[in-house]
Amino acid sequence: MIPKVLLVNDDAASLLALESLLTGAARAQHYELLTATSGHDALRMVLTHDFAVILLDANMPGMDGFETAEAIHSHPRTSAVPIIFITAHYGDERHRLEAYSKGAADYLFTPVIPQVLQTKVAVFVDLTRKNLELQAKTRELSLLNQDLRVQRVQDLERINRALEQEVAERKVAEERAQALSIRDPLTNLVNRRSLIAQLEHAVAAADRHQGEFALLFLDLDRFKQINDSLGHEVGDELLRQVAARLLAAVRVSDVVARLGGDEFVVLLEGRGAPANAARVARKIEQAHSRPFDINGQRIATSTSIGIGLYPQDANSAAQLMKNADTAMYHAKQHRRGSIEFFREELNTRERERAQWVAELHAALERKEFELLFQPRAAVADGAVCAVEALLYWRHPRHGLIAASSFLPDVADRLLLEQVCEWMLGAACSQAAAWRAQPAPEVVMAVDLALLQIHPELAARVLAHLRTCKLPPGWLELEIPEHLLLNTRDNVAVLRQLKAAGVRLTVDDFGSAGAALAMLRELPLDAMKIDRAFVRAIGIDGGTDMAAAIVHLGRALGLRVLAQGVHTEEQLAVLQSLGCDEFQGELLSPPLHAPAMLALLRDQSKNDQTTSPNPNRASPSTPKKRGLSR
Ligand SMILES: Nc1nc2c(ncn2[C@@H]2O[C@H](COP(=O)(O)OP(=O)(O)OP(=O)(O)O)[C@@H](O)[C@H]2O)c(=O)[nH]1
User: Fold this and answer.
1) Atom 16, ligand 1: which residue's CA is nearest?
2) What pLDDT score was predicted for residue 626?
3) Measured in angstroms, how far is the CA atom of residue 226 from the centroid of ligand 1?
4) How distant, in Å, are the alpha carbons of 168, 214, 362 from that of 255?
5) Which of 87, 92, 126, 572 could bridge to 58 as Cys pair (CB 3.0-4.6 Å)?
6) Which of 54, 64, 34 is nearest to 120 (CA)?
7) Which residues form a coiled coil (predicted)?
8) In this predicted structure, what is the pLDDT of residue 510?
9) Fold (topology level) of 4-134
């Protein structure tokens, strides 16, 4: 903006003279020169222009210079405009004082000295220019400031939004982490970590108030089989339904947790918790007695339960968990689906078991296992027709131990499989060795009690037969009835074995309550009556039971075998019932291989001496019994 200077004079000649004095300077110093010919004219102009200085004639008609100056300075917009009075009244001090009192910046007398006039005007023009520059800079600065403020506000808002989002996300993450840290995602039950915290709290509370509480340790039975045969998703759904039944069986205040896999824990606090424990355990047992319905499939399972009490059974949360787990383990060993309270004696058994397992591993390496053989003979003529291979361990300190004394306690499946593999291989190679000798050929029976029936079983058995060059028809596998209960996947394995010519016998028949329809479906050759029924012959309806089982076997089209035959009376009854073969102390105890071979040869000789009459001696013929080792 160009600074402006106003010349006010009513006398046209004076106005022109002054104007001409300043025109050159105005051009040189870049300011605009405007003129007014009266006070009123001047007042109008100050309202529409900003002047760097006003040169005001003091002596004008109408409104003189002083009145004009007063009016200009009375308006807020122009109150600070510098005014230089120009007058002809030289030396009139009164005028000069009045002029200053009306706000004059200076006072000049006519005739004015051009340089003085130009210099004074130049000072005010310069001042105004500087002011204008300053104002422009101030405006610029304030705009800049405003921009900065806007920018800052926008930045702050953006940062704020980002922060708010982060806080919200963190909150969600924290809530999730919190939920995950205390809940099992599959069942939504309390998880192991949270259970341990609650358990420690329960211990502290019991210690403080001389209170007590109970912990139930649960493990589903044969859950792996359900997973393996029906799939992991069915297994997952079963775990969810088990969780729901557990919650329904306890009070809201009780804690139900899933430790992982198929293990659950129930924590019962409050008065009478120990007494409640057995009641709740039975309730849980009952809750599991109804089959589960998963996608229309009915699945039956049971749970083994161990109970630990605080402070009776332990002095810390960790010890209580361990002891309840030990009790559960023993419940499972005793009978799946049963309940066991912890006793200190169980820990002793646990230590012994761990010791056995360690020693068994070493026994495999040191080749301390042996097979003994127990003959099985036809009930009709006492002729040995099969030999059952029985596993023994020649223990460095305890001597010869039967498998039934050390294997049922072993939970290590891999170890069991290794032992059973050894047994199958040894039995097949012994059978092949006897076939190469001049001795009557007998079937080799191997008890599968310790093996799970798994998809590779057929391939493994057939591989052993091939290695030993033993025809499959000379091998008989005895499969305990309880292993046949879940045969969904196993039927194919059994059919493979049967198709290859291996004989299959259901062992311990009558001990596990297998459904008859299922037995009919399976490719079985024979049924071996559980020794408990043989033992009961002649006692309180025992003979009728044995008769029913023999008839059942017949009805199913199976050969019927009896084991554990100790007396002539038992054998006579079995013969009268039409049982096919028998085994037991009455015939012979288990023998080492050479003694067994001798027995077979002995029988062969007897057969030849009685030849050509093919009829064998009657089972009651004493010479067929009690063959020496
Ligand atoms: N479906 C499912 N299975 C699981 C899960 N976690 C672990 N398992 C399986 O649960 C099974 C646990 O089996 P175990 O308790 O060892 O064996 P079991 O068949 O129940 O045998 P017993 O306890 O001796 O009667 C294993 O096969 C695991 O793979 C899970 O979240 N979902």
Assistant:
1) 224
2) 40
3) 9
4) 31, 11, 43
5) 87
6) 54
7) 127-183
8) 81
9) Rossmann fold (3.40.50)
The three-state DSSP-derived secondary structure of 201-235 is HHHHHHHHHCCCEEEEEEEECCHHHHHHHHCHHHH
What would the pLDDT profile of 358-408 be if each residue is shown by its tens digit? 888 899 899 999 999 999 999 999 999 999 999 999 998 889 988 888 777
Name the nearest CA neighbour of 502 among 575, 453, 437: 453
Could you give the CA distance from residue 294 to residue 241 in angstroms, rounded to a whole number? Answer: 9
Least confident of 10-14, 184-188, 325-329, 618-622: 618-622
Find the 577 Cα to ligand 1 centroid distance in Å: 44
Q: Please tell me the predicted confidence (pLDDT) of residue 489.
A: 64
So what's the pLDDT on residue 624? 42
Determine the distance from the C-alpha atom of residue 418 to the mean position of all C-alpha atoms in its chain, rounded to a whole number.
Answer: 32
Give me the pLDDT at residue 616, please.
37
Q: What pLDDT does residue 167 have?
A: 80
Whole-number Å distance between alpha carbons of 585 and 590: 8
- Atom number, ligand 1, closest to the C-alpha of residue 234: 1
pLDDT at 129: 87
558 pLDDT band (50/70/90 cuts)?
A: very high
Given ligand 1 and candidates 184, 227, 482, which is best to mutate, with the most ligand atoms within 8 Å of its CB? 227
Identity of the highest mean pLDDT range in 160-164, 182-186, 306-310:
306-310
What is the spatial distance between Cα 89 and Cα 96, in angstroms, rounded to a whole number?
Answer: 9
Residues of the chain with CATH 3.30.70.270: 192-342
Query: What does the block give as tokens for 230?
Result: 């029906």
Q: CA-CA distance, 133 to 567, in Å (whole number)?
A: 132
Are 3 and 31 in contact by the 8 Å Cβ rule? The answer is yes
Ranges for all domains in the chain classified under CATH 3.20.20.450? 354-601
Distance 477 CA to ligand 1 centre (A): 27
Tokens matching residue 231: 């799939």
Closest by alpha carbon to 520, among 484, 567, 544, 479? Answer: 484
Integer Cα distance of 56 and 70 in angstroms: 12
Please list every protein residue whose CB sits less than 6 Å from any atom of ligand 1.
Answer: 186, 219-225, 227, 232, 235-236, 239, 261-262, 332, 336
| Identity of the amino acid at 12 | A
ipTM of the complex: 0.93
Please identify, by atom number, the ligand 1 atom nearest to the C-alpha of residue 222: 19
Cα-to-centroid distance, 248 and ligand 1 (Å)? 23
Residue nearest to atom 4 of ligand 1 (CA): 261
Mean pLDDT in residue range 539-554: 91
Across-strand partners of 107? Answer: 85
pLDDT at 605: 72
Return phi, psi of residue 591, to 5°: -120, 155
CA 424 to centroid of ligand 1, rounded, Å: 27
Report the distance separating Cα 433 and Cα 425, nearest Å: 12
Peptide bond preceding 612 in cis form (omega within 30 of 0): yes
Q: What are the residue ranges of CATH 3.40.50.2300 in the chain?
A: 4-134
pLDDT at 614 over 60: no
pLDDT at position 474 is 95
Q: Which CATH class is domain 354-601?
A: alpha beta
Topology annotation, domain 192-342: Alpha-Beta Plaits (3.30.70)
